From TrEMBL:
SUPFAM superfamilies: ABC transporter transmembrane region, P-loop containing nucleoside triphosphate hydrolases. It is a multi-pass membrane protein. Keywords: ATP-binding, Membrane, Nucleotide-binding, Transmembrane, Transmembrane helix. Signal peptide: none annotated. Residues 44-330 form the ABC transmembrane type-1 domain. This is ABC transporter related protein. The lineage of its organism: Bacteria, Pseudomonadati, Bacteroidota, Sphingobacteriia, Sphingobacteriales. The chain crosses the membrane at residues 43-64, 84-106, 166-183, 189-206, 271-292, 304-321.
């Protein structure tokens, strides 16, 4: 009953759904057995130890029985010596062997599962990050994360603990019942007649308790969400002076938790008193009936004691089965979800970096020919409706248009994040589908709108653009990106830790790190997704300067939000609702009466001059 903790908040356990156990599901998950294969030898030894420790456990009641018989002056059975002292020594020796074997069994099982699970985790993770973008748009990050943590932990727990327990308890159950029958058929029949009542009540209470425990955990999870939301948006809470409102919201939710937990307590209390009554009642009943049989002369005291010990084994084994079964069901469910990921089709990226090296170098010319595209997650909405444009190698081409026009979508398609439905995208005249995915992505760098830095040092973050870069190369890239000075202003320089647990960099600083990263990658094609939030003028100048250095000599695709930065572009493409509305140089587009570009340009000019 230890699992029914009402306020434990162990949401993870409660959330894992159970799967039906049948031949089909078991067959399916047997695919995961290959992860145990490399450790087969150790697993088998562990398994033999497990059998040994369970079987030796069954010997004790029998040994105790013979020991008592010898003590009473009767001859020893089963070839044991006629000496209490010697039988005691044998019992202790067996106990020693059992403890010794149990130690190694646990050690071996943990080693095998830890290693197998690490392999499985590694494969699942690699599989996950090489899945196409579409997979991620349909799922939440939290959900994917829980596959790696909760689901795989459940599988691990089950293999190390539940699997071993099932084997152990089954041996104890079958062995125990056989010994019970062997010791006294009459008593066993008596015992079995009261068993169904206890089991029936146990199942009823167990179900009720589980339901209540689940709803208490759900409620607790809900109140935890309030805490999470409040802490995440703490500046909003403070700015609106809504502290007391939030505290009230949390308090209300907590009251609900307590209410449900109290309801559970009633069931728990009645269950406990029922179990105490039944358990001791059963022991008392057996003793009573056993004593009666002893009195009649058809049974002796030592056999009654052995009988009691075996029935405790059987009772304990029966009690553990529902939990073990539920655990196995959860593990099967978890395995199915993990397998789902392992069976997904991934992008053509290898885990071996050598195989990902560029095989075909491109100069940087790029064309879209009648490209039609809808996101796989929203097939009904065509985002790009027949887009055609050409970019020559080394040109600077800017895309402008209102929000949602499809600018970022074009950037994503250049990187081949998605497959297009119609038309063709070519690099140096070669269809993108005829180039290796790594050839395309290796030769394109993107400086995104919102630069996310990984937890690690600044040095590592810049090196993300070229993992084998030397420190000199990194510093040179940072200098060209106007980042060196601000990096050196930190006491730890390039070793300053950034990201969630480190120093927070300003938007402009993060962009310059991203520019340094891109410089290090030295791509043929560059995609700049201009930041929407404007930087202060000094920062803007530094970023702009760095961008100019970066763009020199490469094809640059600029997703522009501020038109002032793209006046010099070789071509400006104006997108409107997934189509190209205007195309030309700034000086040409500004001439078009009632043109979108002219309108946008005027708007921005007005905003700037107010
Ligand atoms: N992953 C996605 N799944 C489904 N639809 C998407 C996805 N990303 C974008 N869209 C939709 O595609 C359309 C074009 O979006 P896109 O991001 O390309 O526009 P944008 O011109 O870059 O806008 P902004 O200037 O605001 O960044 C929008 O209607 C958007 O809702």
């Amino acid at each position: 009953m230890a699992r029914n903790r009402f306020n434990s908040g162990s949401k993870q356990e409660a959330e894992l759904p159970k799967a039906k156990l049948n031949k089909e599901t078991l067959n399916k998950i047997s695919a995961l057995l290959k992860y145990l294969k490399p450790y087969k030898g150790k697993f088998i030894i562990g398994f033999v130890f497990l059998l040994l420790s369970s079987l030796t456990g069954l010997l004790f009641p029998g040994l105790i029985k013979v020991m008592l018989e010898v003590a009473q002056g009767n001859p020893a059975e089963y070839g044991l010596p006629n000496s209490v002292k010697l039988i005691g020594i044998i019992a202790f020796s067996i106990l020693f062997v059992q403890s010794f074997v149990s130690f190694f069994r646990i050690k071996l099982f943990v080693e095998v599962t830890e290693k197998a699970l690490a392999d499985l985790r590694r494969d699942t993770y690699f599989k996950m990050i090489t899945l196409p973008m579409n997979f991620f748009s349909n799922r939440r990050v939290g959900e994917l994360n829980s596959r790696l943590s909760a689901d795989l932990s459940q599988i691990q727990d089950t293999i190390t603990t539940s699997f071993a327990e099932i084997i152990r308890q089954t041996i104890l159950l079958i062995g125990g019942i056989s010994f019970l029958i062997y010791t006294s058929v009459q008593l066993t029949l008596f015992n079995l007649s009261i068993l169904p009542i206890i089991i029936g009540c146990g199942v009823f209470f167990g179900k009720k308790l589980r339901l209540i425990s689940r709803s208490a955990q759900d409620q607790l999870a809900e109140s935890n969400t309030i805490v999470e939301e409040t802490l995440q948006g703490i500046n909003n809470v403070k700015a609106f002076v809504n502290e007391s409102y939030e505290a009230g919201r949390y308090d209300k939710s907590l009251r609900q938790v307590v209410k449900i937990a109290l309801r559970g307590a009633t069931y728990r209390g009645s269950f406990a008193s029922f179990i105490i009554f039944c358990l001791f009642g059963a022991i008392l009943g057996v003793m009573w009936y056993g004593a009666y049989l002893v009195q009649q002369g058809s049974f002796d005291i030592s056999s009654l004691l052995a009988y009691m010990l075996y029935s405790l084994f059987v009772g304990a084994a029966m009690g553990t089965f529902p939990d073990l079964y539920a655990n196995i069901q959860k593990a099967v469910g978890a395995s199915e979800r993990v397998l789902e990921i392992l069976e997904e089709k991934t992008e053509d990226i290898s885990i071996d970096p050598e195989k990902n090296k560029t095989k075909h170098f491109i100069k940087g010319s790029l064309s879209f020919k009648g490209v039609v595209f809808a996101y796989p997650s929203r097939k009904e909405i065509t985002v790009l409706k027949g887009i055609s444009f050409d970019v020559e190698a080394g040109q600077k081409v800017a895309f402008v248009g209102s929000s949602g026009a499809g600018k970022s979508t074009i950037a994503g398609l250049i990187l081949k994040f998605y497959d297009i439905q119609k038309g063709e995208i070519t690099f140096d005249g070669i269809n993108a589908n005829d180039l290796a995915l790594t050839d395309i992505r290796n030769q394109i760098a993107i400086v995104p709108q919102d630069v996310i830095l990984f937890g690690g040092t600044i040095l590592e973050n810049i090196a993300y653009g070229k993992l084998n870069a030397t420190k000199e190369e990194i510093i040179k890239a940072a200098e060209q990106a106007n980042a060196h000075n601000f990096i050196m202003s930190f006491p730890e320089g390039y070793d300053t830790v950034v990201g969630e647990r480190g120093v927070k960099l300003s938007g402009g600083q993060r962009q310059r790190i991203a520019i340094a990263r891109a410089l290090l990658k030295d791509p043929a094609i560059l995609i700049l997704d201009e930041a929407t939030s404007s930087l202060d003028s000094e920062s803007e100048r530094l970023v702009q300067e760095a961008l100019e250095t970066l763009m020199k000599g490469r094809t640059s695709i600029i997703i522009a939000h501020r038109l002032s930065t793209i006046r010099e572009a070789d071509k400006i493409i104006v997108l409107d609702k997934g189509k190209i509305a205007e195309e030309g140089k700034h000086s040409e587009l500004i001439q078009i009466d009632e043109g979108i570009y002219k309108h946008l340009s005027n708007l921005q000019f007005e905003i700037q001059s107010t």
